């Protein structure tokens, strides 16, 4: 649904995607910054672009979620832990 790519010298050094059904479900996935480019604010730039997309595309009653290893970044943009209202789960075959 939405992809953000940050390039430096012809290489992708930061990226993020939003996937979903285009109606009520949106999930932020794959936000990543290359190790050599971390701590420079690029994750924040990716999130700013993704949030701008969501503010324009997602209806007020949309379910916007993310499974994250870096909750502090998402918290800066208004994300909160889902517990106790819901519980995240993963399948590991």
From TrEMBL:
Coiled coil: none
Organism of provenance: Ferrimonas pelagia
Domain of life: Bacteria
CDD domains from the UniProt entry: NAT_SF (cd04301)
Name of the molecule in the record: N-acetyltransferase domain-containing protein
InterPro entries given in the database record: Acyl_CoA_acyltransferase (IPR016181), GNAT_dom (IPR000182)
Residues of the N-acetyltransferase domain: 1-93
Matching Pfam families: Acetyltransf_7 (PF13508)
SUPFAM superfamilies noted in UniProt: Acyl-CoA N-acyltransferases (Nat)
């Amino acid at each position: 649904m939405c992809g953000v790519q940050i390039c430096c010298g012809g290489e992708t050094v930061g990226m993020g995607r939003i996937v979903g059904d285009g109606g009520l479900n949106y999930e932020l996935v794959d936000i990543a910054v290359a190790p050599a480019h971390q701590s420079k604010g690029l994750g924040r730039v990716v999130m700013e672009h993704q949030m701008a997309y969501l503010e324009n595309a997602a209806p007020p009653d949309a379910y916007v979620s993310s499974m994250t290893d870096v909750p502090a970044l998402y918290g800066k943009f208004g994300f909160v832990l889902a517990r106790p209202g819901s519980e995240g789960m993963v399948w590991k075959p």
